[in-house]
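Fold this sequence, please.
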Amino acid sequence: MNFSGENLADADLAETDLSNRDFSFTNLQRADLSDANLTEAHLIGANLSSANLSSARLRSAELVGANLSGANLRNADLFNANLSGANLSGAYLWYTMLFKANLTNADLRCASLIQTVLVLANLSKANLSRAELLCANLWNANLTDANLTDAKFKSTDTNITFLRGADWTGADRTGAKFDDATIMPGGYTYYEFKNDVGGIASDGC
């Protein structure tokens, strides 16, 4: 079924099977999509601001340019989802699965990423300014040219993460875990950089 361009603001779609459906440019503002199955759904340019997507399945979903500002994505599964250019500012991404997700040029300003899985995610040129990444897993993630100003990386696992060209001015890296092969903002490895980084011990998350 095609919902493209429809106005579904405030709709109750909780626990609904919406896999492979087309919601391109649909208004889903404040909609309840908790526990919904949106696997491989097309949500390009959709308005999902302040929507409830907790525990929703969005594996391989297309969310290019979607507005997810202030959305609740707690425990959501976005494995291999395409969120390129999406607006996730102020979104709640606690325990969210973003393994292999494409977040290039995404807006994650002030987003809350608590224990979020970003393994192998592409965050190149993403804006994570003032985002909170407490105990997040960024193993082998690509943050090339990302904006990390004033972000909180406390106890985040950044092993072998690519940070070349990233701006982390004012970022809190207390307890962040780096691998000697991690590519740092200046293009050198963490092994070459670590004498200039403080507080690398884990706090046990």
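The two ends are 44 Å apart (CA to CA). The mean pLDDT is 89.
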